[in-house]
TrEMBL record:
This is Cysteinyl-tRNA synthetase. It comes from the Bacteria. It comes from Streptomyces tunisiensis.
Amino acid sequence: MCAAPTGGAAQATARKACEIPACARSRAYARLVLRITDARTGELVDAAPARRGLTRVEAHPQGLDPTGLRVLLAADLLLRALELGGTPVWALLAAEGRHAELRAAADALGIRPFEDGDGAAGLGEAQVLHVVEEGRTEPDGVRVAVAPVTWSAPGAPEEADQAALRLALLTHPRNAPAVIDADALDRAADTLRRWRGAVADWARRPSRPVPDEVRAELRAAWEDDLDTAAVLGALRAVEADPGLPDGARFETYAYADRLLGLDLARDLGHPA
């Protein structure tokens, strides 16, 4: 911490001391604010306008189909990002029927459990975010729109590798239509195998902290309208950077996976 100067010479010394990196507040640890597009206006709004205020996130899937799953996934990502920023959250499922099937599908996709919701006011929340399918004009309040998914892969979505499906969906911006076909699932599965194997290998090296500039890039990506495509791009850059120690790669992937939920550390401890 920089000492308060008391005189001319002391002030100059203190100014010089405060210019060194140890005294400068790193961008990586500055408090960022998650901004999300409100579909009513098309403008970015603070997802959590009151610091430490409870934020209620309601998922409104209209059916048990790929687009409905994408709504649940977007709500899950929103909850994870808010929690990473220190915001308390309350997750609610607002759907007309088929709750048991929706919960089972969400669980398979690595989505946290949701409580049943009826749209009523709850625990004095400071913000309510409604995650809805694109084109919905209800309910009132901030609406986070999710574009449709076209399923072109063999079989039903529930028959696919669910981790690969999650990654395939994360590669597309939430507000852009997505086509999930066999090639997309194969690419995602290959990436998961490579990353999980790499994370298990990197874990055998001495640990190193996430580089400040990488942490800042990751946070800036997901705080900017949940840009998971940019988060994945940052991870690819970390994977390819020859100057990073493996211990830092490991910590970076473990940190980003708190948002992505891809179970990237699944193979830790397995034989090489």
